[in-house]
Design goal:
The protein is an alpha/beta fold. It has helices at about 45-50, 75-85, 100-105, 105-110, 115-130, 145-160, 175-190, 205-210, 225-234; strands at about 1-15, 20-30, 35-40, 60-65, 70, 85-90, 165, 195-200, 210-215, 220-225. The strands form two sheets. The chain has a six-stranded mixed sheet with strand order 6-7-8-3-9-10, sandwiched between helices. It has a four-stranded antiparallel sheet with strand order 2-1-4-5, with helices on one face. Helix 5 (about 115-130) crosses helix 6 (about 145-160) and helix 6 packs parallel to helix 7 (about 175-190). The longest helix is centred in the C-terminal third of the chain and has 17 residues, at about 175-190. One of its GO terms (cellular component) is membrane protein complex. Keywords: ATP-binding, Nucleotide-binding, Transport. This is ABC transport system ATP-binding protein.
């Protein structure tokens, strides 16, 4: 069963000249997939991620997450559903500056009502796995960009969401930090079977994906499994 099922999805931004950012798009993503959504700037990939995350309102169509139609939820129901089921990683990290790395990792769990000892245990576990366990009590301003993005990924994973949406997560990272981050995300994908969906134009991310979906003018132009890509390369 698909963890994410998108059916005839449309998103139009109204204005003097309406812009159709997503155009009758249908797509299914299975549990545990490591998928890159790619395409030129303005193709609709970030809009698609925002719709999947419930951060933007659908014009028409359906988004089903484990069978639940997100487009049928009220604003409060959507907020609760998003909190329990979706992890987010942004290119700008979006860490809370007054909180320590450990507190940032535990923030979503705190919103979910998880007690502090459980939050701290999970945060320590993830930061240790990500090689920055010694930064638990350090605030974001004292961390490098790569370290901040690791904290952001740990936060996304902390509550064990159904899937993670990552919008250009490597955009502000150097090559070494990018490779380290992708290694960690691939490891967590395999160890915890977390479904990860990237919106990216970074070839380094595309090369590590198990599936590459190319979006053009708001539509799926190409959908390739990694085995197909390897056959072409060979």
């Amino acid at each position: 069963m698909a963890i994410i099922e998108i059916k005839n999805l449309n998103k139009t931004y109204e204005g003097a000249v309406p812009v159709k950012a997503v155009d009758n798009l249908s797509l299914s993503i299975e549990k545990g997939e490591f998928t890159a959504i790619v395409g030129p700037s303005g193709c609709g990939k970030t809009t698609l991620l925002n719709l999947l995350g419930g951060l933007d309102e659908v014009t028409s169509g359906q988004i089903l997450i484990e069978g639940q139609d997100m487009t049928a939820l009220s604003a409060s129901e959507l907020t609760s559903f998003r909190l329990k089921n979706i992890g987010f990683v942004f290119q700008s990290y979006n860490l809370i500056p007054v909180l320590t790395a450990g507190e940032n990792v535990g923030f979503v769990m705190e919103l979910q009502g998880v007690n502090k000892p459980t939050r701290d245990k999970r945060a320590h576990e993830l930061l240790d796995k990500f090689g920055i366990g010694d930064k638990f009590n350090i605030r974001p301003a004292m961390l490098s960009g790569g370290q901040q993005q690791r904290v952001a990924v740990a936060r996304a994973l902390a509550s064990r969401p159904a899937f993670i949406l990552a919008d250009e997560p490597t955009a502000n990272l150097d090559s070494k930090s990018t490779e380290e981050l992708l290694d960690l995300m691939a490891k967590m994908n395999e160890e915890e079977h977390v479904t990860v969906v990237f919106a990216t134009h970074d070839q380094r991310v595309i090369d590590r994906a198990k599936r590459v979906v190319t979006i053009t003018d708001g539509k799926v132009f190409k959908d390739e499994q990694v085995s197909q890509l390897n056959e072409v390369a060979d």
